[in-house]
Amino acid sequence: MPESSGLSKGRVRQAYEFIKANQRQYSVQAMCRILEVAPSGYYEWLLQPISNRAKEDARLLRLIRASFVASHGIYGAPRVFLDLREAGETCSKHRVARLMRENKLRALHGYRTRRWSVGKPAVLIPNLLKRQFTVTRRNKAWVTDITYIRTWQGWLYLAVVMDLFSRLVVGWAVAPTIHRELVLNAVLAAVRRRRPRGTLIHSDQGTQFGSDAWRRFCRSNRLEPSMSRKGNCWDNAVAESFFSSLKKERIKKHIYKNRELATKDVADYIDAFYNRTRRHGHLGGLSPEQFEAAQKKAKRRLH
User: Fold this and answer.
1) Is the domain of 164 the same as that of 91?
2) Do 237 and 95 lie in a common domain?
3) What is the pLDDT of residues 188-238, one digit of tens each?
4) Per residue in 88-141, pLDDT tens?
5) Are residues 83 and 162 in the same domain?
6) Which of the chain's termini has less CB crowding within 10 Å, N or C?
7) Are residues 171 and 274 in the same domain?
8) Residue 166, SS3?
9) 71 and 220 housed in the same domain
10) Which helix (H) or strand (E) holds 173?
11) Which CATH number covers residue 296?
12) Backbone phi and psi for residue 87, each to the nearest 5 degrees, phi listed first
């Protein structure tokens, strides 16, 4: 499309739209001369006012919005780009970022990182994990922790167990109190699902994890307990990171009417979204279930 070399495409399009809106009042030739655009370009634009690139942007934007909405508003350009690439699109990550920026599609941000002092090791249970958060096989090391969820009925406490290999939540449980049965139920769900053998299970220094019942439970289920140093959440940073994602991506938006509704939403987040479809930066953009399936497939090929 012929246009003045001194104007950007956006400015040229604005000039054409002005000419079209005022052509009954002023001559096209005069307006083109004043606005420094070519009359031939204006007449060509009248036949096709929307460029092919603009049409492609509009098509991509529909796909971007679908990915953004499906992620509950938590995906930024890198993860949306991976969704589009998986769907067969060949656009660049920069184009996705531009379209999201122009259309005010902003991912939810997390919380500010708190600073923690270096604490003392637990007396009864040592820190065997020692922040070795990257492991090479399933069931080598798990982490577990507890958080709370606000409802109008009162607090709901959530305990989770995560496999560090794939960041998969392998067990979870909720309860209206923070008694030790909450943790035991979550870990029991993980044990039934994964059948561990000598798996390291790391926790903070909560009273639930320092009890005799906890140590007996670990021994009877072939788990080796490990415990963070006192007051140092970085020793259990992966579990803390999961809770941060859960709260910024789902729970932070809600004060639930009752514990039943909160439990249903937590189940949807963990089982239907986080484990199954949520892209994880540590896993190369795959979800935990996708990562485990890919690793299992690669292992079969080697044998």
Assistant:
1) no
2) no
3) 999 999 999 999 999 887 777 777 778 888 999 999 988 876 655 566 788
4) 788 888 999 999 998 988 887 544 444 434 444 445 678 888 787 888 899 999
5) no
6) C
7) yes
8) coil
9) no
10) strand 168-175
11) 3.30.420.10
12) -85, 0
